Amino acid sequence: MEIQLIETMSAAEKLYEGKAKIVYHTEDTEIHRIVFKDSATAFNGSLMGKIEGKGEINCTISAALFECLSSIGIPTHYISRPQKNQMRVRAVKIIPLEVVVRNIAAGSLVHQTGLPEGKVLQSPLVEFYLKNDSLSDPLLTRDRLLLLDLTSPERLEQIEKMARNINQYLTDFFQRCRIILVDFKLEFGLDSQARLLLADEISPDTCRLWDATTTDPQERIMDKDRFRRNLPQVESAYQEVFERVLAQNKIGDISP
Ligand code: UDP
Description:
With about 260 residues, the chain is an alpha+beta fold. The protein has helices spanning about 1-10, 55-70, 105-115, 140-145, 155-175, 225-230, 235-250; strands at about 15, 20-25, 30-35, 40, 45-50, 80-85, 85-90, 95, 95-105, 120-130, 180-190, 195-200, 205-210. Strands 8, 9, 10, 11, 12 and 13 form a six-stranded antiparallel sheet that branches. The structure holds uridine-5'-diphosphate.
């Protein structure tokens, strides 16, 4: 009886609360539960707000994309979606790297290099940033990454290869949704058997998505840049991505 009570308590124990998600332990040490929140932040937390319905939308889009990616052999942490805004995932130790893949120049690439926004890159660019808010997530060189012992050279190669494969799949997927995948951020983790899994989320919070049906530079934005730039219709842009993704990939209803 006492053991049961302790187990129930630990089932709801919070492991980590981030800007957009809360990760909970479950009764199974190999499984975590992630609750996606409506709250939104940008510029390293200096802009804070809420995007109504975002939790459900990001959880559902991520679940659909993780299912697609696992069907083409990309191992992900996703297990199931017991609630519209909740995911059961394999417990992983996150590698503190933000892996950014870019197809078109935008955001920090434009600010740091002077490339014109919208320039199509000759081949996709894969970049690594240190996942560290207090250092403002700096761009890393390969040598710095290895110097910090964030991962081994072999693992790094595996991550880069996986990121490029994911980009190829997602670019085609979004194209079928009439959406241009400009760039996006991935995170990877290691499970208890040291297997590399794609983790975190893939959503309008972590991707730049441009509506292929318009060339208007503001109207086409369907992602968190609407929030970052204080543009109108943030919710409806997220909703539109949600509908187009689900029309392309019918994700099953919630399941335990
Ligand atoms: N990104 C993210 N989390 C971060 C930083 C970037 O999800 O902490 C995503 C961002 O939404 C974009 C891509 O990674 O799709 C590249 O972002 P960039 O380096 O251009 O930085 P930003 O301009 O967003 O600050």
